[in-house]
Structure formats: C-alpha cells, structure tokens
C-alpha cells in the first residue's frame, strides 16, 4: 500500500501525518470490555485488601501489629497497593515457624530455612518452606532502610518478573528482637555454591542461560528506576534451572544510615571503582558487578581470590587503578571477553546498559542452542567447551569459598588522575597469584619469570608443568589465609 501523506494547517502550524501503515488500529469493543473487566477486578481486589486491613488493624488482634509503627505502615501500604493475590507483605508471628535451620551468614544478616505453618492469609495455604533473613541489630530499624526496602518491593513482588526473589512478609525473633524478612527459599542455594559444585559440568550454553537470567533481572530492576547496589553470586539463587536475584533493597546496616560520600556497603571484590571513590551509586555500578559475575562463571573463581583479606586497602587502590580479574583465554570465548571488559570499564559511562547486555547474551544463546555451525559466535563457544572438556580435573578445589562477606567500606578520595591502568583496563602488577579457573582445578597459579611458565597462561599444554611445580607452594599459601 503506497504511503499517503496528509497536510493539515491548524493555527498556522503545518503538521504532516505519519505513514498510513503506522496508524493505530481502532480499539475493538471486545478489547475495551476486557480492559474494563480487568480494571474492575483490580479495583475489587484492592478494595478487598483495604477491608481486610481495616478489619485487622486493631493492636489487640494477635498477628497483625508488630509494635513498630513504621513497619505497620510498610505492610499496610504493601497490601493496599497490591494488584496480585500474593504480591503483598504480611506480619508473621515468629511462633508460626518451625524447623528453623541455619544456612549462612553475611556481613549484615544471617539466613535460615524454616517451615511456615498456618498461613494468616486465606490466599496463601501452607505449610510452606521459606527463607528467614535476620537483619543484624535491627531492633531499632531506621526509617531510611525501611523506605529503601519498600521502594524495592515494586520489583520483588511483581509476578511477571521471575528473576527477582519474592518477599512474603516480616517477623521478629522474640529473644534477639531482630527483625527477619520472610522470603522464597531457593532449593539449590546461592549461585556461588552451585558454581563450586557443578563447574566441571557447566557448558557454555548453560552459563549463557544463567547470565541471561541475571541480566534480565538487572534490566527489570533498572527499568523500575532502581539499583541493586550489592550484586554478587551469594545474592543470586539457583532453583529449578533458573537464577533469581535476592537482597534487593537490603544492603547495609538496618539500624543506621551510610554516609554515602564516605562509606559504601557491599563486597569489595564486586564493587565498582567509582563507588570505592565515594561517588553516588548508579545503574552502571550494577553493570560492573555483573562483569565480576561473568568472570566468576567463566573461570569458576570469584574475582580477586588471590588477594588475602588483610590487604583490603591495597585491593581498593588496585581496583581504582584498573586492576581486574585475569581472563583464561582458552576457555573464554573472545566475544564474551570483549563484553565482560566493556562491563568492567573504569569509566562507568563506557559500560553497556542492561538492555544491551541482554540483547548480546540472547543472540549468543540462540546461536549456541540452535547449533548454528556457520556462525563465528557458535564456533567460539564450541571451541571453549572442547578446551574445557580436554582439561577437566577431578581434584577438590583449594579455594575457600566462604571468604567474602558484605561490609561497610570507607571510600577513598581518589580522582581520575590517580588511575594508572593502561588502555586495556588490566593491571600490570607482577608477582601476584592469579586464578586459572576451577577447570584447572580451581587452582591458584603463581606467574613465574621463567618464560615457559608465564606463557602457560596462553598455552594449555604448559599447564601441567605449572601445576606440578607450584602445588606445594599454593597449599602452603592458602593454609595461611585467615
């Protein structure tokens, strides 16, 4: 159909119409009726929540008020604004949980599994196995922490966003008085544990699938106008073949506010250089954290595992100077390496956004999944998989995986002129231990001045030489780690 242009003159302003094929189709009566029906059901559901809240807003009714007006308000707002049956918070008395078992501890919280019995909402039937996240020293929880948590709920409890861990409610330990977040329990634990236990069996197709889940979750967070602020593999959860992002809006101490120009909360190894310099958090800092996750999934080792914990300040300065995890060339496709380096660029404005990352990963995933043998992308990932298969090791990894915890970091006052990195974004430091990935087998290898040893980074045939020469040294070094 030829394009038809119509000129209109209104108040002496000439307007040209869009091509006819781009005109919007009139809304059909059936669609209009469906929309009206949907809005009516949505309004009816909200009214039901409002009535339910009003009927239970008596402090004498067990199970509703927690004694903290700010938390009561948070729960009330969640219920009134909910548009789905289970996307709201509720106050859960602590005695409704049984079989509480310790799972792990971070810098600001401790996580347990528990059985939630006798659900208080008729729309939720139990019992249900859940995770309880104890917020350390949260008896006097601060309003700013609650406000940030409330803002994050717009992502956490949207049913259409599958990549974010659902949050069900809040409870309080009657002994410690700490508040606890009731949330979805991922059956296979966090992603770091999954990588540790399954790395030798992870194909690049599966790695791309995992990263695609994470990137989509980050995109959903950013599209909602939020930042995660603490992305790392212990905050990512693997369950039923998919990865979900947790701890959105739960970064830092619950009882005090960070001075953002002087302090930052998180794991140093995953923190962007601009955050370590004391700048405000942006979406591009999340992209840097994603690059560290890319490195961990590609190599099998968390970033900067070679740096002892007591060298925290040295690591901060190194990261700001452009020091990054080394890339295992032979098992890392070139296209993947390029994207990863773009994501960890020292200049935050040179990093891609989440949408661009999703597009790249999805393209690669489809080409590998469909066995597109004519594609250079497919060949890169296939060769990396073949190289991995040829060098599988069954030896137990030496790395201590419980090493990293979130903490409050005093940020430095570094300017751009203090950055000494070369254009590649990699450090030129000598005499360090570098991670070669769990396929080698999660062994830390010292770079020697001997040519044959240093070239082994590029040449897998030299690996056995390095492995046999350095194993005893590495055992000794790792045993000294705190």
UniProtKB/TrEMBL annotation:
GO terms in the biological process aspect are: signal transduction
Cite the record's Basic and acidic residues compositional bias ranges: 29-39
Q: Is Nucleotide-binding there in the keyword field?
A: yes
Q: Which SUPFAM superfamilies match?
A: Protein kinase-like (PK-like)
GO CC entries: cytoplasm
Matching entries from Pfam families are given as: PK_Tyr_Ser-Thr
Q: Which residues form the Protein kinase domain?
A: 97-365
| Annotated region (Disordered), positions in chain | 29-59
Question: Could you tell me what this protein is called?
Answer: Protein kinase domain-containing protein
Organism, by scientific name, is: Diversispora epigaea
């Amino acid at each position: 159909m030829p394009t038809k242009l119509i000129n209109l003159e209104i108040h002496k302003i000439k307007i040209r119409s869009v091509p006819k094929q781009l005109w919007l189709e009139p809304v059909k009566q059936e669609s209009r009726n469906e929309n009206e029906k949907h809005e009516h059901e949505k309004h009816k559901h909200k009214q039901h929540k409002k009535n339910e809240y009003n009927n239970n807003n008596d402090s004498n009714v067990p199970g509703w008020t927690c004694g903290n007006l700010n938390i009561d308000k948070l729960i009330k707002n969640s219920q009134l604004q909910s548009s789905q049956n289970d996307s709201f918070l509720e106050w859960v008395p602590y005695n409704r949980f049984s079989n509480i078992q310790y799972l792990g501890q971070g810098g600001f919280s401790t996580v347990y599994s528990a059985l939630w019995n006798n659900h208080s909402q008729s729309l939720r039937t139990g019992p249900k196995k859940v995770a309880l996240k104890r917020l350390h020293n949260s008896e006097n929880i601060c309003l700013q922490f609650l406000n940030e948590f409330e803002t994050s709920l717009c992502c956490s409890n949207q049913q259409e966003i599958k990549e974010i861990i659902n949050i069900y409610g809040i409870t309080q330990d009657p002994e410690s008085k700490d508040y606890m977040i009731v949330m979805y329990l991922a059956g296979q634990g966090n992603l770091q544990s999954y990588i540790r236990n399954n790395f030798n069996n992870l194909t690049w197709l599966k790695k791309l699938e995992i990263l695609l889940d994470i990137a989509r979750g980050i995109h959903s967070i950013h599209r909602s106008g939020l930042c995660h602020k603490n992305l790392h593999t212990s905050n990512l959860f693997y369950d039923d073949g998919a990865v979900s992002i947790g701890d959105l809006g739960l970064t830092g101490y619950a009882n005090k506010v960070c001075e953002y120009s002087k302090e930052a909360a998180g794991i140093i190894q995953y923190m962007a250089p601009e955050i370590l310099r004391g700048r405000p958090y942006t979406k591009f800092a999340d992209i840097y954290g994603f690059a560290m996750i890319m490195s961990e999934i590609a190599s099998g080792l968390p970033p900067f595992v070679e740096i002892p914990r007591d060298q925290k300040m040295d690591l901060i300065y190194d990261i700001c100077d452009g020091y990054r995890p080394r890339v295992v060339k032979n098992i890392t496709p070139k296209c993947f390496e390029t994207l990863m380096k773009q994501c960890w660029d020292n200049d935050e404005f040179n990093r891609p956004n989440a949408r661009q990352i999703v597009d790249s990963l999805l393209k690669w995933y489809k080409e590998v999944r469909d066995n597109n043998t004519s594609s250079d992308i497919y060949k890169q990932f296939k060769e990396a998989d073949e190289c991995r298969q040829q060098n599988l090791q069954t030896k137990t990894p030496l790395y201590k995986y419980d090493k990293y915890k979130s903490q409050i970091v005093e940020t430095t006052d570094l300017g751009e002129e203090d950055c000494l990195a070369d254009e590649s974004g990699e450090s030129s430091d000598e005499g360090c231990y570098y991670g070669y990935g769990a396929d080698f087998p999660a062994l830390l290898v010292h770079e020697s001045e001997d040519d044959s040893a240093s070239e082994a980074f590029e040449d897998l045939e030299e690996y056995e030489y390095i492995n046999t020469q350095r194993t005893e040294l590495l055992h000794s070094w790792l045993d000294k780690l705190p």
